[in-house]
What does this fold into?
Amino acid sequence: MKKQLVNPERPNLFEDTFDYDSVPRILFDGKILEEIDGELITFDPKEAIGRELVISDTTFRDGQQARPPYTREQTVKLFEMLSRLGGPKGVVRYTEFFLYSEKDRAAVEGCRDLGVEYPRITGWIRAEPGDFRLVRDMELGETGVLTSCSDYHIFYKLRKDRRRAFDDYIRLVETALEAGVRVRCHLEDVTRADIEGFVLPFVQRLAEISEQVPDELKVKVRLCDTMGFGLTYPGATLPRSIPKLIYKVTNEGGIPPERLEWHGHNDFHKVHINAASAWLYGCDILNASLLGFGERTGNPPLEAAIIEYMGLKGDDAGIDTRVITEIAEYLRNEVGVAVPADYPFVGSAFNMTRAGIHAGGLERDERIYNIFNTEKLLGRPVRVAITDKSGIDGVVKWVNDFLGLEGKERLGKIQLVKIGRWVVDQYEKHDRVTAISEEELVEQIRLHLPKHYERLSLKKAKP
It folds into this structure.
């Protein structure tokens, strides 16, 4: 059918999706189809969104494997900020800790002393009785247990066969449950594992054991895409297919969505989309770390998971997104983390434009070139950097924003032409290759806009 041009009197801004003061909504108008074992299976994203989706944190476990260790004080501060970020409903529901060193255990005690409800503190151990004693001694109510499931790990790392690994894992699970500790089995390297021959028999046994214990002790399963091999593509085969993997574990393995967790890595640049897709395909818990720190290429970024949650749910659940900026500034200024300038949501220049045509658009309507109201949601107003690509539009935007001019007070191109000419000359006559600094632009304001400079100086001088 040939379509006819529609010429509305008012622009269609799709504001049901792009409400500027909120995270853009993620909306669905159909079901996702996937053929599994010759049967066409439907996944309804709307049903997934209706479940209680939550985030678990691995900043202090997997995240610690990718960088110098946090001090006790840094761990406690980051934990406190995670609690505020997750809000009163505990969207950031759990976090996990190593327990091996005295420093690890002191950090756990420091976080406990805060007395916050969320995130709940859990441990991480290998499937060894000696490791479990650490959990018992710390009196933790839940611990992750490394239950590697691919033959790469079982045969070559553990030097066992499948039967011995299976029995050792189950023995440790039963020991923990007898002690009143909930177990979260980490199926390491699941996207290279024999799903029918090892994973399903193992999780089915976990489901059987869970039937014999109270709800608060029922075993959880974490699907660990250790090497980032997971795929969301329809028609992809097991063990890499995320839809098929989650379907098998929930429908044949007997592990319900609320006890199923996804843990990914970014080796193939798929870490966030794989994790978010796991939510949609039947996994309620998304494991992530602050700024995506994790072994090798990293884990799903927790701040991205927060934004994704809000987009899917259409609800902030009491989340204070400005804490994302607070965390980034703390990591940068107090911990010494080098945050890439263009890193989404937290980089120093993530919402900064250098192109003149973009600056001109921002001057007309900020929504044109800003993802959402970053000043409201992240405490980060949109910014312009002045380079050889900025043009007069970039200068106009920068000067007006710096001077805090609004409405009719804002200066136009003609009033700022001399500053614009000076910028052009820096690159055309002096072969400059760096951006213009704030100090240099302020000096140009002093020279060419003396009244505005004087007013700005008086404003800053007021106590």
In short: The chain has two domains: 32-335, 352-461. The first helix runs from residue 45 to 50.
